[in-house]
Amino acid sequence: MRVLFVTSEVAPLIKTGGLADVSGALPAALRRLGDDVRVLVPGYPQVLKALESFKIASFFSGIAELPAARLFSSTLPDGTPLLVLDCPALFQREGGIYQDKTGSDWIDNALRFGLLSKVAAILGGPQSPLDWKPEVVHCNDWQSGLTPAYLHFLPGSAPSVMTIHNLAFQGVFPPHTVAQLDLPEESFHPHGAEYYGNLSFLKAGLYYANHVTTVSPTYAEEIQTDALGFGFQGLLKNRNKSLTGILNGIDDTEWNPATDSALVQNYDVKNLAGKMANKLELQKRMGLKVDPDVPLFGLVSRFTFQKGLDVVLEIAPQLISFPAQLVLLGSGDATLQNSALALARKFPGQVATVVGFDEALSHLIEAGADIFLMPSRFEPCGLNQMYSQHYGTPPIVHATGGLVDSVVDSNKNSLANGQASGFVFKKITTHDFLICIQRAIAIYNDKKTWATVQANGMNKDFGWQNSAAQYHEIYESLLAAR
């Protein structure tokens, strides 16, 4: 099966969130199943700098109002073939990949990701300049959402799959963008890419893709509701028969406490002694009181309302009074960042906050914390709750999306049947959150039961192979339908 995997970021070359982790791991898992997968990503400075070598595979010019571009061929560190869209006018710039240094979206994002979508469609069409022809084009989030639309109007093209990683980000741009990007006029219609008078990249993908997937079974149901459909619930209900929720996996070679180089001492489910060494190191590094017995709570997240950081900050004074400690790592909303920093200043030795992204520290938090906090208001899949279980750090999660699909609440029944792996609360309120935290601390203080919960989580298989097999089945069904 020849698959072109189109993404705006891919680990370890360029990452802002979970999409990069998926884009780095899923193609590799598909290749282990025997599929011939190639990843297409924009040529950001970080990507080009990371490439050890590359060849020029093709040139693109004369695409509406888009600048000329080149296509490089290279490989990811794991050997997965990589195609890099090199267009200095659109991608070679300082700042983030979606936003400038001030945090504002790049004003030409429509052109930047319109070009990515268009080139992906050309590669999936009958006039592709490459000898390698994909049988399926797999698109991810709004940045490649126009690809299924281009393919739909291109006879003889490959079928497309559109994966929603977060429906809240929709790529909405003014109507004149349609002509700029060489989209057929008939696509700008309510039964198409038009969205309340504007062009929506994501709606284009959801409407025109041959199959739509999202990153957990529960989220696939949630996005068909008014509460979490973000305006697309009607469209997604109509596409129900071609909408599938597949739970993401994790890269269990990069995220493995037995081999993780970011840890001061490795450990596994048969020998958890090393986990305590990481706790003491985390306390020391973060300026917390070094205490092996106090429960240490960790959070690694974007600092946003969606992630429930406001609720964490609100209950933090009560949390540390139990007693407990709290480590926060992340960035996002300026008000939440400042509040998190202020909390650490107010409670030195009990609360530590690091604003920014630190991959090594995130690994140490997963290993060194006793309990992981993830009270997202909605969470399409989430990966940290899987990492934390894998590291013997039971998570506390809100019952939504991939969180409820991957964490089993520790209660009388689940403890008895050996399924308990964390703690789940049903309503985003400070009351429900604190009650769940208290339940977790009570079990933490029962060392024998706690060790059982840790072992249950660590023994779970969160690898990508099962999920990759489900994607492969979808690819096969699309070819069979042809």
Offer a concise description of the structure:
The protein has 482 residues and is of the alpha/beta class.
CATH homologous superfamily name of the largest domain? Glycogen Phosphorylase B
CATH class of the largest domain: Alpha Beta
For the record, the count of structural domains works out to 2
Low-confidence stretches: none
Please report the number of helical segments.
19
**What portion of residues belong to β-strands?**
15-25%
- Look up the CATH topology of the largest domain: Rossmann fold
Return the structural class.
alpha/beta
**Average predicted local confidence, pLDDT:** 96
Strands ordered across the widest β-sheet: 3-4-5-2-1-6-7-11-12
Radius of gyration: 23 Å
**Gap from first CA to last CA:** 14 Å
Number of strands: 18
- Overall geometry comes to globular
Largest sheet: 9 strands, mixed
Q: Do you know the CATH architecture of the largest domain? A: 3-Layer(aba) Sandwich
Helix percent band = 25-40%
